[in-house]
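Recall the central idea of this unit: under ordinary conditions, the amino acid sequence of a chain determines the structure it adopts. In this exercise we apply that idea directly, starting from the sequence alone.
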Amino acid sequence: MLQFAIRGHDITNVKNVEDLALKTQLAGIQNVQLALGISFPNMPTETANINPGMGNYFRTKLAERDVNIAILSCYINMIHPDLDVREQLLQKFEAYVKHAKYFGASMVATETGCVFPEIAYTTENFTEEAFQETVDVIKRLVEVGEKHGMLIGIEPGLNHPIHSLQKTERLIELVDSDFLGIILDPTNLITAETYPNQVDIVKHAFRLFGESICAVHMKDFVVENDRVKPTYLFQGEMQVKEIISVIAQQKPNSFVVLEETKDEWIGKAKDELNHM
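Accordingly, the structure predicted from this sequence is:
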């Protein structure tokens, strides 16, 4: 058994939390990964805005439709080159960690950013300097997680300083905290050359740092012009059945987020998963 989830912003044209709760329930899903600023762009969700009442309101309204906030997202560029901007972003993430319990979330999630102001692919992310800078920032965030009893979910990816299984393993060794969790997104770690080995990559991730994996993203993909591009689940090259089998064996009842599967495709994907 696994607990399937969706990103709240993969349901489009959502007017408010009640609307999100209803549409999630109708899709047959009971868990969401909630990125407040993306799902509700007109609502103030910065450092000074997030508060216990907001968390309680979202948690209560979603619970009325039997929907749970599995993961609270706060995606930031944690190594922004402008140190003043970086500090503002880190303080925002820390505010989310402080208040996540009021939302009923089990973790606060982010990727690991970019050496440039705008997150983009660059080999400069792969230097030892960028890696060490990222480790230092994650240590700070994990200390806040320890203080508030909240897991910090870090998502590795090819466009970021934590861009491989080996770098992820080193991160875990250097941070050395039970409050650091890894959100494994297999599609973020494969290329046009390595995608045929996707199942082996997932198995290897569990061998290297399975104890630290706290959730998995399932994002299907197609390979076009030597690039891996996301698509709806069961519409691409992902070996869904095999990967789901590995996750279920290694992490029973874990959260599996159907990333990039949107609107009416969510229910279709859930039906496929239920019949596997």
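The chain has a mean pLDDT of 97.
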